Amino acid sequence: MTALPAREPASENNAFERKNSRQETPVSTLKELVANLRREQNKVQNLLSSLGFALRSFNNLNQFLEIIPLMATRVSDSDGSALLLYKGEGKISLEQVHCQGGLACQEVRQGIAKVTRELGKKNTSQAEEIVALDALLEKALPTDIRLFGTPILAKGKERGRLYVFTRDRAYEWTLSRQKLVQLVADQVAVAIANNDLAVEVRQKEKLDRELEVATDIQFHLLPRKYPKIQGLDLAAACRTANRVGGDYYDFIPANYDQPQSKTETDETIGSSQPWSIVIGDVMGKGVPAGLIMTMTRGMLRAEVLNHHSPAKILEHLNHVMYDDLESSHRFVTLFYSQYDPKTRRLSYSNAAHNPPLWWQASTNTVQRLDTLGMLVGLDTDSKYEEATAQLDRGDTVLYYTDGFTDAVNVKGQRFEEENLIQCFQKAAAQQYTPEAIVKHLFDQVQAFIGDQKRSIDDMTLVVIQVC
């Protein structure tokens, strides 16, 4: 009877131990779960950190893309991953595939390659390809493989898809896994955008080099030195709106095709012989206009060799250039003149160019030198008229392109021909030299449009003065 109470403390101790044991089990389990989560979090952070480092370090896009499926597989705990990119024109490219956990990569690769070939044969838009891609891949892959994909968006445009796949039927495409794979896809998008930008920069650098060459060629095609023409003082300048322009001027001696004597130079050849003075403007600006300007120069110089009259030269030039100008949808305005130092006569013909201005020293008046004629390249059968001006000592002739008269100020007003005539007449009446007249007119137009503003069109001046 006395032994019974002695068991009660033992019973209480056992109960306490059982209760304590039940409390320790969930705590240890929770600790293990937290530890696993931390390890998983560290793994994911390390993977994403490695991906970011690769994005900063790799200069080659293909090198970076090689590691993408591996990263996507690791962060999503899947059996493998595949990266597909859209190449445009109905083409989808399988860039990389990675498999692990015993999944056979060969059958996955073959299934994806089959789908990309099928889509490449169809004349479908990229939007249709995107819709069809997931469904076609699911049919092409083995039935026990589950596929999950996420888009690769660069500059608001889908450039490809990143897939993960698994044979694990218990695998869940959780929100966390979706976000991690999307992070990897976003890194791919950044790499693609950076590569696009690098390609654009290289293309721009290439274009800049080509423009430098074109600018240099054009600079050397325009007269670098003024020829010595008996009884004539002259000056010229050309300012292009872009690095390459469509304005053209030239001084061509009547006998430049003849062999030079030992005492003749490029500046003195045929100084007492007739000279051709020409100015032109190709419709448009930039490299295309510069190319046509170069073509015009070569063909005109070839025509001068025939020693025809100004009207005939323009007629022949128009006939020869018509096909090329029509196919390029461009035209050329051209004023062609021939000056005879012995007679001081200026014969000319105009192909719809701005008429040069002739200031007569004896009367202090300005006349326009013009004849009827169509644009070069407008009609293959165009005819051109011809006229002659008898210059006298002190007379000055101004050739110009429409970049001067079309110059616009901040109020939207154009410089117009009237202002040009006034500025020219004032400078000529004050006995400015051709060089001074050229500088004065450029300064006047610049002041009109604004000191900090650049002309939107090429501007060219040629001034000849009888002395």
UniProtKB/TrEMBL annotation:
SUPFAM superfamilies for this protein: GAF domain-like, PP2C-like
One GO MF term attached to the UniProt entry: phosphatase activity
Region named Disordered: 1-24
Record keywords: Hydrolase
Domain PPM-type phosphatase: 229-466
InterPro entries in alphabetical order: Bact_Sigma-Reg, GAF, GAF-like_dom_sf, PPM-type-like_dom_sf, PPM-type_phosphatase-like_dom
Domain GAF: 60-202
Protein name per Swiss-Prot or TrEMBL: Serine phosphatase RsbU, regulator of sigma subunit
Organism encoding this protein: Dactylococcopsis salina (strain PCC 8305) (Myxobactron salinum)
Organism lineage string: Bacteria, Bacillati, Cyanobacteriota, Cyanophyceae, Nodosilineales
